[in-house]
Amino acid sequence: MKHFRLVLTSLALLGITALALPTAAAAEEGETESPVTWAMSPADAAGPDGRSWVELELDPGATVTEHLAVRNFGDREITFAITAADGYFTPTGRFNMLPSDATSVDAGTWISVDDQVTVAPGGTAVLPFTVEVPDDATPGDHAAGIAASIYTESAGEGAGLGVESRVGFRVMTRVTGAVEPGLAVTTSPDYVTSWNPFEPGRVEFAYVLENTGNVRLSVSGSVEHGGATFPAPDSEQAQPIELLPGDRRTLTIQVPDVWPTGVVTLPLTITQAVITPDGEASQLDPVEQDVTVWAIPWPQIVIVLALALMITGLFWGRRRRTKQIEQLVDQAREAGRREAEQTVDTEADGPVPESQR
Predict the structure, then answer these.
(1) Which phi and psi angles does 21 have, rounded to 5°?
(2) What is the pTM of this model?
(3) Stretch (H or E) spanning 201
C-alpha cells in the first residue's frame, strides 16, 4: 500500500507573554515518549530579557543583531528547526507567520539565523539572529515572525499524519522615512426587522477597515444611538485592533432598539492611532461618517393595510346594507302607491246597482 503523508501546522506566535506549546513528540513503534514542551522568546546574550516581541527602527541598508532563547521544558534532548517568515494578522486579530511551504517576500527575508538548535532537557539555548534591511526598503512598518519548530509523523502502514508545531514571536521593523498613515472605511449596514410591530428592530452595522498607509494603526469603531454607545466602551468588542499596512478587516456592531422610520441615520466614529516602535500610540483625528440605512416598517405597513381593508370592508358592507334598505323602502312606497291607486279607482266607479248584481 502506498504511504500518504498529510502535514498539519500548529503555530503559536507570542504577542503579550511567552507561552510554551505542548506537542506530540515523535515515537518509534512500540515505544512511548513523553510530550515535548518548549518556549521561544526574545533575549539578550545572557538569556530571555522579558520582551514579548522585537520592535526595531532601522534605516534602509542597516543591520542589527538580536537574540532569541529556546527553552526545553521536557526530559530529553530536542533539536528544533528555526525559521523566519513574513508576518500577518489573522481575521480574528491574532499574529501569525507564513507556513513553511509559503514564500516570504518582505521582512521574513531580512532575518538570518541558524537553521536549527539542540537544547538539553530543562535547558535554554540562546541564538543570535540578524535583521538586514535592504537599501531599497520602503519606509514604514514591516512584519515578520521567527519560530522554533519540531516535526512529527505517525508510524505504520497506510496514511501517515505529519504535524509541524511552531512556537515563536513577532519581529516588527520600522524602516525610517516618511510616515504616511491612511485608513479607508467602507460601510454596509443592514436593518433587521422585528416582526412584532410593537417592538423595534436592530441595525447590523458591518464596516471594513483598510490600512492604506505605511505604518501600523490601532483602530476601533463605535456607533451612537439613543444616548448610548455601541459597542459598550468597557466591552471586549470595543478594544482597539491592530492593522498592518495593507491589512483589511471586517467588523460588525449590533445596534439594538432602532424603530423602522423609513430612513435611519447613525453616526459612525473610527478612532485611530499610529503605533510607534516604542509601543506607544500617537493619536490621529477620528474618522466620522453619518451612515444611512433603509428601515422599512413592514409589520406596521401590514397592520395598516389590514386595518384599511377592514375599514373598507365595513364601509362597503354598510353601504350595501343602506342600498338594500333604500330599495326595500322604495319597494314599500311603490306597493303603497299602487294600492292607493286601486282604492281610488274603486271609489270613482261608485257602488254597483242591485239590478246589475
Answers:
(1) -110, 110
(2) 0.76
(3) strand 201-211
